[in-house]
Amino acid sequence: MIPMLVWLGLLILFAVGEAVSVGLTSIWFAVGALAALICALLGGQLWLQITLFIILSILCLLAVRPLAKKCLNTQVQPTNADRLIGQQARVIEAVDNIQGVGAVLVGGITWSARSQDGQPIPAGQLVQILRIEGAKVYVQPVPRQAAASAPQASGQP
Q1: Residue 138: pLDDT above 70?
Q2: SS3 of 91, please?
Q3: Cα–Cα distance measured from residue 129 to residue 140, given in angstroms and rounded to the nearest whole number
Q4: CA proximity to 28, closest of 64, 61, 62, 72
Q5: Average pLDDT over residues 77-85
Q6: Phi, psi at residue 24, to the nearest 5°?
Q7: C-alpha separations of 71 from 68, 80, 98, 127 in Å
Q8: Mapping DSSP to helix (H, G, I), strand (E, B) and coil, where does residue 24 land?
Q9: What integer is the mean pLDDT of 5-17?
């Protein structure tokens, strides 16, 4: 009677742990505990229950985990803000870190901006977005040669 309660308790514990984590961390042990519980209900010896628990847990882990990892989407997709990193923007309000002012326009949206190296950047300058912290983008000026060689929207080569 006691082994049945132990296996039932372990089954519930592992099932709840899996439901909380949702990361395929303890489902293998829940399957093993279920097999051991069934063995206990059928009158199996304690050594057989423990053996079933260990073997089925390991088999489930080895067989299903690689398959499940292929099906799960583990790729990190950038958010809308993350997509701005590396893009160029136009300074619409002079950037001055000392005064705490500055804004850039990128993708039709105005962002508060700060200079990466602390140097002031005049309005109208083309900048590259290096990182985002909160609602501020940190930028650096794009060299004149790179800005001049950037593709134009007019469609001319």
Answers
A1: yes
A2: strand
A3: 7
A4: 61
A5: 71
A6: 55, 55
A7: 5, 25, 50, 40
A8: coil
A9: 90
List pLDDT tens digits, range 95-130.
999 999 999 998 888 999 999 998 999 999 999 999
Do 94 and 122 form a contact (C-beta atoms < 8 A)? yes
Q: Where are the beta strands (DSSP E) in the chain?
A: 88-96, 101-106, 109-115, 126-133, 136-141
The per-residue pLDDT for range 16-71, each reduced to its tens digit, is 888 887 677 788 899 999 999 999 999 999 999 999 999 999 998 888 777 777 76
Closest CA to 57 of 100, 24, 102: 24
How far, in Å, CA of 19 to CA of 98, rounded? 50
Q: Between vectors from CA 68 to CA 62 and to CA 73, what angle results, nearest 5°? A: 145
Residue 77 has pLDDT above 90, yes or no: no
Question: Reduced to 3 states, what is the DSSP secondary structure of residue 156?
Answer: coil
Cβ atoms of 56 and 32 within 8 Å: the answer is yes
- CA–CA separation, 87 and 78 (whole Å): 14
- Whether the pTM exceeds 0.70: the reply is no
Residue 1 tokens read as 């009677």
